[in-house]
Amino acid sequence: MPRHLKAVLFAIAVVVAVLPATAFAISSLNFYEQDGEVYDDWGICRTRSSGDDGFFQVTETKFCPIILGQSLGENAGRAYDVGQQLAQKYPDSTQRAERVFAYARDRVRYTPDEELFGYREFAQNADELALAIDDKGIARGDCEDYAILLAAMYKGAGLRSAVVLAPGHAAALVYLPGYNRANRILSFNGEKGWVWAEATGGNNPLGWMPARYMGAELLIYEVEDVAISRMEPGDMTPVVVAPSAGSPGIHISPFFSVLAMMWLLSLFRRRR
């Protein structure tokens, strides 16, 4: 290979190496943008929890964490599988519930959405977190991501689960009557035995409910093992969404990287 061609190829490799991870990232799903919001190919808005197309479908009359339907029923994937594997390993329901909780608590690092994705709000589905854990040993997310992952895993483990909304917060619940390690046992629809699963802290045990939520108004939705269907994106614009690399590194704007490559290619043409 001519020496000058080697130099050009090396320089291009350097440019590619220092680009931000998001510049060449390929999402596990297809994402689309419309009116400043990001939607997935299930037609769910990932950057907004409210409204009929929001990931939690919070309205004046209902609360339904519809994003869970991407990981349950016919859409059951890695998160559900992990729950099933833990169910086989831990036949005792109490021990099983604690192991599912520990799996999420110990393998997800709390990270605000704005830091992770550049959006003030961005929900991940349960399988996106579970696959990140498989790939890197850990995943990153905020409170609703923990809640979504735990709720799906508990269903896979054969336990009843729910998602709970408190003021400015989300968590999971697991139905575990007789559990004696919780600081508060909740009742839902007249049924006592629901245990708070707050996995956002590295030292939290299953059943620890923050005192500030004990007297708060809570919205609770018991999860059903039902899938949702994918939808056509319509006229929305495709967009790449990927988590940040997690390290400062060297960041070069894609615009300037393109200019650099064009300059290198023109240099190569002049030397031919």
Descriptive labels:
272 residues, disordered C terminus, 17% strand, alpha+beta, 33% helix
Question: Overview of this structure, please?
Answer:
There is one protein chain. The protein is of the alpha+beta class and 272 residues long. Among the domains are: 1-19 and 254-272; 31-159, no CATH class. It contains seven helices and ten strands. It has helices at residues 3-18, 78-89, 93-107, 113-117, 126-136, 143-156, 254-271; strands spanning 31-34, 37-40, 108-110, 139-141, 161-166, 169-175, 185-188, 191-197, 219-222, 237-239. α3 (93-107) runs antiparallel to α6 (143-156). It is globular. Mean pLDDT is 83; it is low at 4-28 and 247-272.
Give a nutshell description of this structure:
This protein is of the alpha+beta class.
Total DSSP E strands: 10
Q: Oligomeric state of the chains?
A: single chain
Estimated structural class: alpha+beta
Largest sheet, in brief, is: 5 strands, antiparallel
Number of helices: 7
Strand order of the largest sheet: 7-8-6-5-9
Ends apart, CA distance between termini: 13 Å
How would you describe the shape?
Answer: globular
Topology:
Layout: H1 3-18, E1 31-34, E2 37-40, H2 78-89, H3 93-107, E3 108-110, H4 113-117, H5 126-136, E4 139-141, H6 143-156, E5 161-166, E6 169-175, E7 185-188, E8 191-197, E9 219-222, E10 237-239, H7 254-271
Helix pairs in contact: 1-7, 2-3, 2-5, 2-6, 3-6, 5-6
